[in-house]
Amino acid sequence: MVVTNGPVSSPVAAASFRGEFHDPMMDVCMSFGSSLDSIGDHFFKERDSSSTRRDSIDGVGGMGSSPSPLLQLLWKANSFLMQGLQSKSGGSCTPLLVGQRQVGILRPEVRLILTRYPSVFTFTDSSVVLNTQLKDYDSRTKAVAEVLQDIRASGETVALRSWRGENFVVWGQYGSEPLFEVERSAVVLLGIRTFGVHITGYVSNAEGGVTGVWLQKRAENKPTYPGMMDTMVGGGLTAGLKASEVLYKEAAEEASIPSQLVDRAQSAGTVSFFAETERGLHANTEYVFEIELPPSFEPQNSDGEVQGFVFVEVKDIMDYLLDSNYKLTSTPILIDFLIRHGVVSSYNVPDLPEMTEMLHCPLTQLYRCWPVFPCLPTQPTIPNNNCLMHQFLPSCTTTTTATLVDSRNESLIQELSPRKQSFTASEAVEQQRNQPMTAERGNESYVRDESDQEDSDVA
C-alpha cells in the first residue's frame, strides 16, 4: 500500500493507494444482495473491451430494468429512510424531545439505556423528553454530558468508542435556536441531526470540462472510517463555528489550500441523507463547495488526519466511487458533483430523477412532524415483493398500503375519525401545519406561527 502525504498519480500506485480495508460499518443494510463492487465489475466486464472508461460510464444507469449501481449506493446512504424509518435491529424508534422540539431519534436499545437516567430523561409511550427542569443551554449540556460519560465508561455502545472530545450544537431550529451541545460521537447514538462542509477540488481542461478530482485517503488512526477514501476536504460544524469558517479551517488543515484559492470556492447548496450503521443514525446535511484548482496544485495535509491524496481522472472515478473502501457518507457528495458537471446525466442514467431525490432527504420536515411519513406502516409490516427497491434492500419495509401514524397526534386522529374512517397523509400533514407549535427558547416559551423563519440549510 502506498502511504504518502502527497499526491498519488500513477494508475498502479493509485490502485494500491485505495487499499483493501473494509469497514463493517459500511454494511448498513441487512442482506443487501450483490455488492456494489460486483455490480460495477459486472457492468464493466460486459462492456466491449475496446471501449474507453469514459464510454463505460454510460453503464452507470444499470442493465435492463435494474436500478443503477449509483441509485443503489444512494439507497444505502439513505438506508434508514428506505427502511421506513424503522431500525434494522427491530422495533420502532422513539423521538427525543426538548420541550416540543424533536432533536433526535432513539433506537430501541438506546432508549433502554437512557431509562437508567430518570433525572435527565422523562419517558412516555411515544417519546423521550429531556427533563423540563433543565431550562437553559448550559444545564442541558452538562446533564447530557454526564450521562454520555457514564455510558462511555460502560463500553456498551459502539458509537462512544470513537469519542472525539469536541461538541456539536443541537438545534431546535437550525441556525437560530441552539438548545444544547453534545459530544460529537454521540450524535449518531441519539439520532441528532448534524451539519458539515465538503469541498470537492477538481481540474478542468481548456474547454471547461472536468478532467478529474482530488480525493483523500483518511489516516489509519482516525476514530471513524480509518484508511478509507473520502472527499478532498470535509469537516463537521463544531460548536461555535459557521459553515464559512469551517470551509477555510478544514481547507487549510486537511489540504493546505491557501486562502486565496478558497476565496474562489463555489457554493453548490447542500446534500442530505439518512443512514443507519452499526454506530447509529446518521441524519446528515452537508454544505457542498467546489474549487477549480490549477493543474499544478498538489494538496498536502497538515493536521495528521489524512494519509495522502490521489488525483482521479473522470474515466476512472467509478472505480473509486463504487469501491467499498469509499466512505459511505461521502458518496452523495461525489455523486452530486458528477451530476452537477454533467458526467452523470439523463443520457447515461435512466433513474437520474430518483437519484436526485435521494440526494435531498427532507430531514427538517421529518424531524418537525415525526413520524408523519406516508410510507410508514401502522400495522405489522407486510413487504411488497413487487417493490423493486425491496429486491435490493430486503430490510425495506415498503408496504402495499401506506397509512399514517403519529402517537403525538392522537387528538388529531380522533378529531378526524368521526368524519371518516381513513385519512390520507396529505390531510394529516395539512392539519398539523395549522396547529401552533410551542417550544422552549432559553427560559421562555413561544408559539411558532407563519411569520417565523423556516429552517435554513444555506450558509
UniProtKB/TrEMBL annotation:
<feature type="compositionally biased region" description="Basic and acidic residues">
    <location>
        <begin position="441"/>
        <end position="450"/>
    </location>
</feature>
<dbReference type="InterPro" id="IPR015797">
    <property type="entry name" value="NUDIX_hydrolase-like_dom_sf"/>
</dbReference>
<dbReference type="GO" id="GO:0044715">
    <property type="term" value="F:8-oxo-dGDP phosphatase activity"/>
</dbReference>
<feature type="compositionally biased region" description="Polar residues">
    <location>
        <begin position="417"/>
        <end position="437"/>
    </location>
</feature>
<feature type="domain" description="Nudix hydrolase">
    <location>
        <begin position="190"/>
        <end position="336"/>
    </location>
</feature>
<feature type="region of interest" description="Disordered">
    <location>
        <begin position="417"/>
        <end position="459"/>
    </location>
</feature>
<dbReference type="Pfam" id="PF00293">
    <property type="entry name" value="NUDIX"/>
</dbReference>
<dbReference type="InterPro" id="IPR000086">
    <property type="entry name" value="NUDIX_hydrolase_dom"/>
</dbReference>
<protein>
    <submittedName>
        <fullName>Nudix hydrolase 20, chloroplastic-like</fullName>
    </submittedName>
</protein>
<dbReference type="InterPro" id="IPR031804">
    <property type="entry name" value="DUF4743"/>
</dbReference>
<dbReference type="Pfam" id="PF15916">
    <property type="entry name" value="DUF4743"/>
</dbReference>
<keyword id="KW-0378">Hydrolase</keyword>
